[in-house]
């Protein structure tokens, strides 16, 4: 473990954020401090200086472990160390948080990809920090509620029904069974409503941006940008599969198959999130070529293009179309219907099966990319802990844990004694990280 650098105080500051980069203004700092004060655990966020230069002998992983050792990260404490110039992060959770589900795998595979990286890619540093802290807070709260329910369950045997006769006993158990069935149906029905609302919220933004992408792509020359054109047509085929999957979910809901509808909605939500990430790359790339669509000066031109696209589509079909361009919530560029740009169509069977196929394909590509990155990254090849109670998922984001007192973290009473820490691996917390 490397020695604590001079710019890191040996005792944890009382504030939740130590911004050595100067990237957060006063309002952002106040916002993060307010969020940290409402947590059920103690969080510290360190933003390293802009001139921080990691080396193979002393990288961000070692710096985070040194800070954890000096500031005594254990129990319900959570340390976040962010290196903005190199786009890296390391997180350290105490053994108390690990017992509540804040494990290396949970942070590495769920919290960072879903709650931190997307905001960082958009340049929203305060939002990324708040989302990360809130995701940990939600998991801790769920674990607490589960523990409370388990501890409050009665340990004595349930009283037996004696002397009631056959039919009264059947009536009682039948009533209980019916009540359980009705409760289960209500649970799934309410869950369907919540998932549907979440999907509608995502699709509102997705369709709006897809319309912008389609309009802007109409003015792009696909012959000069064929690779981008293929990505755009593939994107619109995926969103078309998502549209049809919505209809199938609606049919399942009408048939009171709430369990199947919920599974379909979850997959639709996952695909919508993936398409939003793709949009973050496609729309800026197209706008850089076309300049985007000026809604105040291109209205007449766009109407003409839409009319030409509809006529072209009718000519390519033996039978009339249902005018998808006119009823769709987004505009698709006319050239994307040409055979040389059209990708495989995801509508040969059940649309929900198409959605699952797309998700499996995306997940496989992500795993291959991550495996290739990990196998060639020196940090992945050199991360381990002596303490079997701490797990290390690898990657360029990392953390560790150690032991010490409570002051400096907002606890009442006591003082922070950085000298009381022993080996930084003495804790039993989680260690996770990654790179955006």
Describe this structure in words.
- This protein is α/β, with parallel strands linked by helices and 436 residues long.
- The protein has two domains: 17-146 and 380-435, Diaminopimelate Epimerase, Chain A, domain 1; 193-373, no CATH class.
- It contains twelve helices and six strands.
- The chain has a six-stranded mixed sheet with strand order 1-2-3-4-6-5, sandwiched between helices.
- α2 links the parallel β2 and β3.
- α7 (226-254) packs antiparallel against α8 (258-290).
- The longest helix has 52 residues, at 166-217.
SSE order in H/E notation?
A: EHEHEEHHHHHHHHHHEE
Total tally of structural domains:
2
CATH class bucket of the largest domain: Alpha Beta
User: What are the segments in which pLDDT stays under 50 over at least 5 consecutive residues?
Assistant: 157-161, 316-326, 371-375, 377-405, 410-427
Chain-wise SSE layout:
Blueprint: E1 17-19, H1 26-37, E2 42-47, H2 60-71, E3 77-83, E4 88-93, H3 95-99, H4 104-121, H5 125-152, H6 166-217, H7 226-254, H8 258-290, H9 299-316, H10 324-327, H11 351-375, H12 378-381, E5 391-392, E6 430-435
Parallel strand pairs: 1-2, 2-3, 5-6
Antiparallel strand pairs: 3-4, 4-6
